[in-house]
Amino acid sequence: MNNFEDLQKKWQNQSGVSATEDGFQSLLKSVKSIEQKQRTGNIVLTLTIIILVSFLIYVSGYNSASFMLGIGLMIGSLVIRIAIELFSLKRLRSISFSKDANTFTEDLTSYYSFRKYTHYIITPLALIVYTVGFIILLPLFKASLSNGFYIYILCSSVVFLVLFSVFLYKQVKNELFKLKQLQMQEGV
Q1: 0.85 exceeded by the pTM?
Q2: What's the gap between Cα 37 and its chain centre?
Q3: Which of 1, 9, 127, 132 has the smallest set of CB atoms within 10 Å of its CB?
Q4: Which residues are CB-neighbours of 33 under 8 A, at least 6 positions away?
Q5: Element (H, E) at 65
Q6: pLDDT tens-place string over residues 14-44
């Protein structure tokens, strides 16, 4: 009888996570926010690809090997980034909220680790490859455009790269913060 009472006391005193409707809704809202931002990012990247392909066709760039290399690197880096984001979205959607807290936390931790890898390795590499592709195009722009327009493209691209990098940094920081909060919230 003593063993049963000890077991009952241990069970009653265990630290457990009690799920509340508000907590679940907050969790769901955070995950949906991350998912929406990934979708928006994919739309922006897809529009950029469409613009680059349109530019390729407009200037008949497919006649030049260096133009094809530069634009190919730019488009290729964006396609790979979109593919990774789609895989990531699929992975996020596969996390079941109905699982027990430990399994859910493990799944969320795995997803969080994957996103850290994506943000700290894949994204910088994609940005570097995209920039290299653009740099390959610069001599072609200089040879075929007026000096003023070439300088405009050069300056605006540097400003765009800096602004885009700051925006990307803030988005990555925000997403990883939200994921870390979810992970800590569930692991309590």
Answers
A1: no
A2: 8
A3: 1
A4: 178
A5: helix 65-93
A6: 444 445 556 667 767 777 877 888 888 889 8
